[in-house]
């Protein structure tokens, strides 16, 4: 019965579309973060949903999209991206307030806040999509992370962290999840990542979404709702392989 139900749902989403803007992939794409875009694209196409991909490079005018993605990178690459993206800060805040979905990983996540202060050198200005800031610490956090959300089923997110930046959330910016293994935002307050409106930031590389299909579908649903103005149900996919990968690293020793 469920299979027939899913076929009907898939028929309903067939022909829908989401537009995606990939921010600065030539500079910020550490540890296979491109895998997040591939996952979103495939999980849309498996349901007959068109995934329009827009690569946004240095000095490009950022287009209006339903969903934006930015990966992680070394401090050096973040300097260039900060200079280019900051010039379009007001446009990005306008998209956030129009319910566009944003996913930022590590270095990209840090630039979604107000600033990232590397260990030495100039402060990098962020675009303030999140009320947060980051300062580089002396220690580099490297290893597996398991964190618990209050909005996903299953509640867990798994990934890999490699950062020296310590991120502190302010006011309405809530954590994406609470860490049970690993360090997360700063290794002190047990928070991992951040969420405000439809903006999501996280330190989880891996890449994140292939091992966390429930988050991928959550983001696709939000992007469809933004584009069509209503909640649209997604047909279930066979995620046995994805959850085998997810469960294989759950609370894995750091
Ligand atoms: N350069 C930043 C840091 O070290 C981000 C690193 C990353 O994107 N993995 O915190």
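Q: What amino acid sequence fits the structure above?
A:
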């Amino acid at each position: 019965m469920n299979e027939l139900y899913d076929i009907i749902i898939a028929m309903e989403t067939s022909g829908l579309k989401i537009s995606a803007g990939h921010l600065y992939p030539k500079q910020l794409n550490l540890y296979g973060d491109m895998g997040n875009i591939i996952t979103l694209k495939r999980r849309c196409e498996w349901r007959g949903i068109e995934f329009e991909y827009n690569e946004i490079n240095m000095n490009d005018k950022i287009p209006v999209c339903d969903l934006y993605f930015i990966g992680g990178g070394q401090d050096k690459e973040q300097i260039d991206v900060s200079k280019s993206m900051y010039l379009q800060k007001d446009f990005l805040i306008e998209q956030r307030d129009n319910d566009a979905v944003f996913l930022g990983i590590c270095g990209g996540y840090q630039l979604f806040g107000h600033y990232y202060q590397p260990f030495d050198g100039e402060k990098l200005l962020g675009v303030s999509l999140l009320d947060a800031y980051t300062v580089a610490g002396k220690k580099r956090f490297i290893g597996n992370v398991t964190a618990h959300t209050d909005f996903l089923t299953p509640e867990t997110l798994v990934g890999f962290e490699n950062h020296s930046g310590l991120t502190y959330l302010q006011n309405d910016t809530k954590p994406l999840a609470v860490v049970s293994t690993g360090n997360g935002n700063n290794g002190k307050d047990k928070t991992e990542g951040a969420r405000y409106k439809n903006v999501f930031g996280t330190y989880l590389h891996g890449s994140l979404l292939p091992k966390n299909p429930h988050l991928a579908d959550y983001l696709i649903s939000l992007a469809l709702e933004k584009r069509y103005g209503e909640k649209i149900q997604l047909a279930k996919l066979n995620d046995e392989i994805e959850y085998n990968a997810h469960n294989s690293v759950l609370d894995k020793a750091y």
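Q: And what stands out in the fold?
A: The helical segments are 2-13, 34-45, 75-86, 89-97, 107-110, 213-228, 240-248.
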